[in-house]
Specification:
This protein has 444 residues and is of the alpha/beta class. Helices cover 49% and strands 15% of the residues. It has a 5-stranded mixed sheet with strand order 1-2-4-3-5. Strands 7-6-11-12-13 form a 5-stranded parallel sheet, sandwiched between helices. It has a 3-stranded antiparallel sheet with strand order 8-9-10. The longest helix is centred in the last third of the chain and has 25 residues. The structure holds NADPH dihydro-nicotinamide-adenine-dinucleotide phosphate and 2-oxoglutaric acid.
Length: 444
């Protein structure tokens, strides 16, 4: 049996209830076969892949908190410090009822390669809780965040592990988490990114993942003699990533016509009104039905359905495995030319393969959504320097980083004979830097 197959088997056997983690490991190792097979003897001897797929350490902890009626609740918190070969662990915190250790491990594993691709010194980690922020008052969110950080603060620090936001964790949560860290540790340091601008946050971090996605898509389209100009785009999600993907798509001349949340979706043939969407989602924290009520050109539909809308481009920006084989078939049928992932692993392996086999340009999230974490690393730099850069400076650096990621991914794909396969290119380019650092640091 090949080394790759052995390690995939091992991961499935040793972590039986973690399907998302299996999927992430399979996707990466399968596409690294060509590199691994060329070095199989040495990698086996060094147990390189076993070290790569096993987190350096992981924490699981109890998070008790009191709701507004005085009722005590207990949630579970996690932090997985996956790989610190190229820098302090870096990756977001997800608060969503679906969170379990397998989901945090898949996200932490993806983060290793994504962070490597940014070219910045950050290792891979991820954390979160099965806490559901929906419908909670600000006081309840604060109570939960303070309890979560009381435990998490034992394991993180500006030079060891620097969490940030992800699903269910935005500026409000990061503020409460930061306040509690400072109170417990007595340290005013860049221990979290995505902070508010009045306490060490970076301009453009809020916009960074969505903007970065469009910078990457633009570079990918240009390299294939295409452009964003005049293209219709379908976007899923209506959170941080989706909103700023829509905003940048409009700025670059495309017309996004959809967005979604966990209960339904919007089709707006006139193009999404991004200021209205921000008001509804970021300020009022309402459902998408409010968008359709305020916008005569928009249709609201219950359930899932954005991938059935005819468009040139598709940007999945909600959650894992939201774009499945039947969705990929609908996209191809409707003549989509490119899919770029804003979310982490939103496209199943079968759907990705179908899209690629049918000539659709496909940008994998670990490359195309790396702008968020890259800008987090820029926030860390500003915190260390005790400086704040302007929006234009950060945005220009973000654009440069995303274009550079595209060039590296494209070059790696070409070098190994997989021209235009950006999945293989991203995995190889991300992997090479991590293993070089791991090898240089001995057996650890
Ligand atoms: N924030 C960041 O900087 C980065 C985020 N990502 C990834 O991007 C994706 C979106 O994150 P972000 O925008 O920050 O999160 P938000 O919490 O801001 O928004 C998430 C969006 O996805 C929807 N959603 C979440 N879970 C589901 C589900 N199970 N089914 C359908 N819709 C769902 C939400 O709908 P509802 O409100 O109804 O729950 C919401 O519209 C995630 O995969 C995240 O890991 C990747 C890189 C960086
Ligand atoms: O900004 C960060 O540190 C993490 C962003 C994130 O969670 C991600 O890239 O998926």
């Amino acid at each position: 049996m090949s080394y790759v197959d052995e390690v995939i088997d091992l991961i499935v056997r040793e972590n039986p209830d973690e399907p998302e983690f299996h999927q992430a490991v399979k996707e990466v190792l399968e596409s690294l076969r060509v590199v691994i097979e060329a070095n199989e003897e040495q990698y086996r001897k060094d147990a390189l892949l076993e070290r790569l797929v096993n987190p350096e350490r992981q924490f699981k902890f109890r998070v008790p908190w009191v709701d507004d009626s005085g009722q005590v609740h207990v949630n579970t918190g996690y932090r997985v410090q996956f790989n610190g070969a190229i820098g302090p662990y870096k990756g977001g915190l997800r608060f969503h009822p679906s969170v379990n250790v397998g989901i945090i491990k898949f996200l932490g594993f993806e983060q290793i390669f994504k962070n490597s691709l940014t070219g910045l010194p950050i290792g891979g980690g991820k954390g979160g809780s099965n806490f559901d922020p929906k419908g909670k008052s600000d006081r309840e969110i604060m109570a939960f965040c303070q309890s979560f950080m009381t435990e998490l603060s034992k394991y993180i620090g500006a030079d060891t592990d620097v969490p940030a936001g992800d699903i269910g964790v935005g500026g409000r949560e990061i503020g409460y988490l930061f306040g509690q860290y400072k109170r417990i540790k007595g340290l005013y340091e860049g221990v979290l990114t995505g902070k508010g601008l009045s306490f060490g946050g970076s301009l453009a971090r809020t916009e960074a993942t969505g903007y970065g996605l469009l910078y990457f898509a633009n570079a990918m389209l240009k390299a294939n003699d295409e452009t964003l100009e005049g293209k219709t785009a379908i976007v899923s999600g209506s959170g941080n990533v989706a909103i700023y993907a829509i905003e940048k798509a409009i700025q670059l001349g495309a017309k996004p016509v959809s967005c979604s949340d966990s209960t339904g979706w919007i089709y707006d043939p006139e193009g999404i009104d991004v200021e209205l969407l921000k008001e509804i989602k970021e300020v009022k924290r309402e459902r998408l039905t409010a968008y359709a009520e305020a916008r005569p050109s928009a249709e609201y539909h219950d359930g899932k359905g954005v991938w059935t809308v005819k468009a040139d481009l598709a940007f999945p920006c909600a959650t894992q495995n939201e774009l499945q084989l039947e969705d990929a078939k609908a996209l191809v049928e409707n003549g989509v030319i490119a899919v770029a992932e804003g979310a982490n692993m939103p496209t199943t392996i079968e759907a990705t393969e179908y899209l690629q086999e049918n000539g659709v340009l496909f940008a994998p999230g670990k490359a195309s959504n790396a702008g968020g974490v890259a800008t987090s690393a820029l926030e860390m730099s500003q915190n260390s320097q005790r400086l704040s850069w302007t929006f234009e400076e950060v945005d220009a650096k973000l654009q440069g980083i995303m274009e550079n990621i595209f060039l590296n991914v494209d070059a790696a794909a070409k070098e190994y004979g997989f021209d235009k396969n950006y999945v293989v290119g991203a995995n190889i380019a991300g992997f090479k830097k991590v293993i070089e650092a791991m090898n240089a640091q001995g057996i650890v």
